[in-house]
Request: fold
Amino acid sequence: MPSEADQERIARYRPLSGMETPRFSGLASFMRLPLVDPAQAPGRIDIGLVGIPFDGATTNRPGARLGPRGVREASTGTRAINAATGVAPYDLAACADLGDVPVNPIDTAATARIIEAFYRPLAEAGIVPLSVGGDHFVTYPVLRALGRGEPVGLIHIDAHSDTDDGQYDGTRLTHGTPFRRAIEDGVLDPRRMVQIGLRGSIDSADELDWAKGRGVRVIPMEAVLGHGLPEVLAEARAVVGDGRTYLSFDIDALDPAYAPGTGTPEMGGFTAREALQIVRGLRGIDLIGADVVEVAPPLDPSGVTALAGATLAFEILCLLAEAVAARRRRTPTDIFP
Reply:
């Protein structure tokens, strides 16, 4: 249990209940949590939910810049307790919506610098970020901020490897290159990186050779189907071990039947139920941050993709809250003096 002082602090940052005001009323925030200025978050917040409304590195269908807005709206339906796992994240950690990163919508390199500068003070203050993109490029500068002192491990759930070297006249910053750039920069440990659910057509037979050659554990969808999710999750846990780990969930890991609103959909993906099983199977890992990316509401007027993104964000929030509580138990004086 958190200390009495931590309990008092945590109690100040809870979502607005639907029993107090209707869920469809007021300004939408992630999970109906309080909005907090990032500059005021250190010493108050354990987990900061952040929107990164950028899709300027998308190579196919745009629209993920509106992902944070759509997920915020869809997340107003979430409640305080995870019925499947029993986790009550707002009893374990002080959580708040820290707003959106002020991206430059027409300059990818500038946006990379802006994102890293936004996340670096959060990392230095021990605030765990849960981000909503945006295209998958945005994960790269987040990893640069979180892995600056020590490279992190990664659980990557996606239809695509995102370890390309570059496209379109040598462009090195796209939503297909974030993890290659992070490995090259030394902020991501490829030997503690696992990719789950890769599928679809590829541009060349050696597309995954670079990642595999550096120790990345690649588990394509065919292997998932052959071995089953329990075995795959056990493998993922073994790869990342007990070290600091980041979780990145691209919504196109789901089959387009469950998430049509995304930039590069691929047939044969996970069902919504399987996606929940995957996230819940990662409990107990030392997660220091996470994201849900590539939700593109304009490509899905039904809103089901935004709902999938919001649901997965809440499930991941539960993981992060448990991780925060576990670290507090190990080093109670190191979290918030």
Notes: The beta strands are 47-52, 95-100, 128-133, 152-157, 188-198, 217-220, 245-250, 287-293.
